[in-house]
Amino acid sequence: MIGFGSFLTYLGYGYMDSWHGVATLALLPFFIIGLVRSSSLVKKISVKALFSSFEKTEFKTTYGIGRILLLFSALGIFLAGLTIMIVGMTTIFVPQDLEYMNITVCGIEQINKNLKPLIAHDRAAFGGGLATIGLLYFFIIKNAAPVINLWQILFVSMAIGFSSAIGVHFIIGYTNVSHLLPACLGAASGAGGLILTYPRMRNHAETSIKS
Fold it and tell me: Can you give the pTM of this predicted structure?
């Protein structure tokens, strides 16, 4: 709902991408049908299920600490996405953006009055997608069995996501420390969580194969 709902953020900046709208409307029926058809696989649909967990987190174990780090990283991605989406709907730019471009908001409007809503559209949509990914991460890590497949999926997706999100800043020379720090902390938390949870998830797979 957050992902599809983020399309409505265009109301905040006044620019509606027609292709974006068509793609959203085309995908929405598949999402609804998927929810309806898959609901039969769930034994009991309840709001309380959101607060349940596959297993109790042991803060004194290596795996428990790793799991907490992964959850922290997922929550950070979700909050970052919400922040970016809100910024895209309101101010559009953060001070670091304007400093990097060496321009003011008025200067951008003088170049082309459509630049602000266009940039706002991309930023708000990106934020909505990021918030959706963070939320998916959080509940998957919280409720899924600790198997090697889960670890592999988290490793590949986090590696691609964080490396591209952080790496592109160095490619274009946008290396403001305060701007990159949250992403670097999220990446470090995710990497630490993956390292600490690997032995348990690998052993879980080996135990399942033997049994």
Answer: 0.86
In the chain, where the domains are located = 2-43+60-210
Closest CA to 166 of 148, 179, 153: 179
DSSP 14: S
102: left (phi over 0), alpha (psi -120 to 50) or beta: left
Select from 197, 211, 82 the least CA-distant residue to 142.
Answer: 197
Distance CA 127, CA 140 (A): 20
Integer Cα distance of 117 and 129 in angstroms? 18
Give the pLDDT confidence score for residue 45 in this predicted structure. Answer: 65
Q: What would the pLDDT profile of 107-131 be if each residue is shown by its tens digit?
A: 999 999 989 988 988 898 899 999 9
CB 84 within 8 Å of CB 126: yes
Q: What is the mean pLDDT of each run of 10 residues along the chain (211 residues)?
A: 73 76 88 87 71 79 95 97 92 94 93 90 90 95 93 98 97 97 98 97 63 43
CA 120 to mean position of chain CA atoms: 18
